[in-house]
Amino acid sequence: MRIRDITADDAAETARLRKVAFGSAPDEDPARPGLRGLVAELDGRAAAVLTIREFHQFYGGLPVPMGGIGGVAVDPYARGRGVATGLLDATLRSLREHGQPLSVLYATVPALYRSCGWERAGVFEWLDLSVDRLPRGPRVLSRAAWEGDLDALHACYLDLASGVDGLLTREKPAVDVADVLRHDVVSVVPGHDGEVRGYLTAERTRDGLKVFDLVGRDADAALGLLRELTSWGGTLERLSLRVTDPAVVGLLVNQGIRYSVTTSTWLLRVVDLPAAVAARGWPGAAFLRPAAVDLEVVDEHAPWHAGRQRLVVEDGRVRVEPGGSGAVRVHARALGPWFSGMHDTRALRRAGLLDGGGDAALLDQLVAAPGVPRLADFF
């Protein structure tokens, strides 16, 4: 098996593979900035393909480089022959070489990705709600967005995203902020000196209204945008709201005791533990005395960080260095849900992903799990 980079000459074959796998082939340019891909060949023919997007994901208030894996397709004749595993192993090497210590994917076949070290670490959610459940908040002066609002609108998003573990920075080259203006509805609540206090993006479909983002820097802005959505009451009974800001759906919308949420889970893979720890924010570290936990990382697919590693907290900083006793045995699948804050070490022990006699309490103290990690983008 030969694994190589995707080129423009592979367009027809990769489209065929994805049509076989998914029923349709996305129109993707392998030369697009922020996007690269790998092809696995058997007997000189493309047998499997995937793409990697260059993202940054917030953890602890800091953006961590992350490779978003998508479009994984294997020709039926090549399945069960180790092609997918070989392609994923090559992907891990590529991610490390490109300075991406994390990787995220949405798994249609979780067992495959779990066997290579990815594990469930967060959610992507849509809330289905009745228009009459929307609060009639204060009236705010909103208007349609235009190109001159893009920087301020993105700053408003980043103000939210930096405080929600898992959200993307939505920056170039993988994401063009200007794409937001393609939505049917883009409303902004202007603030002082060109600032955007809040914004709303939505698409009108045959099935109703899909609200992609509803973001407010303050309660009045968010409630005012929710009030704007009540204007659809004469046309629609229900709408779908993507959960970008968990405070909006958790604290401001009037759901009853039961309501419908469509949840997709995403899997996180720590590709390079020392680099990932160095890039992440650790707000709780400033309040901890110097301490360390000795790890034995079990990771056959990423041997560069396997073995004994010591996680050290000192002077408000966190680092991973080689050595230590290896008292706490951590399997590759445990690193993602721990890093994101999705699961604590007790849950990981019960799942058989963390064991040994060492004290792992420091790992939980560092993450401090401020809320369910989430994405508001699908790829």
TrEMBL record:
Domain N-acetyltransferase: residue ranges: 1-137
PROSITE patterns, per database record: GNAT
Gene3D superfamilies: 3.40.630.30, SCP2 sterol-binding domain
InterPro entries reported in the protein's UniProt record: Acetyltransferase_Eis (IPR051554), Acyl_CoA_acyltransferase (IPR016181), Eis_dom (IPR025559), GNAT_dom (IPR000182), SCP2_sterol-bd_dom_sf (IPR036527)
Protein's GO biological process: aminoglycoside antibiotic catabolic process
Gene Ontology molecular-function annotations: aminoglycoside N-acetyltransferase activity
Domain of life (superkingdom): Bacteria
Signal peptide start-end: none
Protein name from the UniProt record: N-acetyltransferase domain-containing protein
Organism annotation: Saccharothrix coeruleofusca
Lineage, broadest ranks: Bacteria, Bacillati, Actinomycetota, Actinomycetes, Pseudonocardiales
